[in-house]
Amino acid sequence: MIRCLVLLSAVFFFCLAPLSSQAAEAVPVRAGAHEGYSRLVFDWPDTVRYEISGPQDDRLTISFFAPGALETAGLDLSGMVVSALATEDGPDKTVAVLTIPPGSTFRHFTIGSRVILDVYGSAPEPVRAETETKKTKTPVAPETKEISSETVEAIRKALRGGVL
């Protein structure tokens, strides 16, 4: 009987161990309004695989392929391109759905385990180097005068005769 209880305890422990390692970890989410775009940072404890779908209508969906609890309480979205953020936590996947203006664009990248999402209210402006146009005076050719053929002949004679 004791042997059976030990065996059942071991089976129970090994069956529940994988579930406890899959527990959703807290994932801090930060937001910032910048000139022309909003930035969201998902600060995962480890690197995570993710996929972005959309924008579709006024929604942009980012799916993280890891369990997690996105910490959005107290997230201030005022003055941001992103007007709302809804989350859905699952056992194998965590989803964030953002409400954005129609026609918005975005870019995303990672730094370490952080996933960064920039959402632009409209197409981002191309970066242009500032150039300054300077007006310069157009060079003017020196004024020439016509010399008579008699003067030219006199100069030639003087050169040949060694006068000049």
Describe the structure in your own words.
With 164 residues, this protein is α+β, with helices and mostly antiparallel strands. The protein has a domain of 98 residues: Sandwich (Immunoglobulin-like), CATH 2.60.40.3500. It has 2 helices and 9 strands, in the order H-E-E-E-E-E-E-E-E-E-H. The chain has a 5-stranded mixed sheet with strand order 5-1-2-9-8, with no helix packed on it. The protein has a 4-stranded antiparallel sheet with strand order 3-4-7-6, with no helix packed on it. Strand 8 and strand 9 form a beta hairpin. The longest helix has 20 residues. The N terminus is likely disordered.
Q: Write down the secondary-structure element order.
A: HEEEEEEEEEH
Name the strands of the widest sheet in spatial order.
5-1-2-9-8
Shape call: rod-shaped
What gap, in angstroms, lies between the N and C termini? Answer: 136 Å
Strand content: 35-45%
CATH A-level architecture of the domain at 23-120: Sandwich
Strand count: 9
**What proportion of the residues is helical, as a percent range?**
10-25%
- Over the alpha carbons, how many angstroms does the gyration radius reach? 38 Å
CATH fold label of the domain at 23-120: Immunoglobulin-like
In DSSP terms (H or I, runs of 4 or more residues), the helix count works out at 2
Would you identify the regions where 5 or more consecutive residues have pLDDT less than 50? 3-21
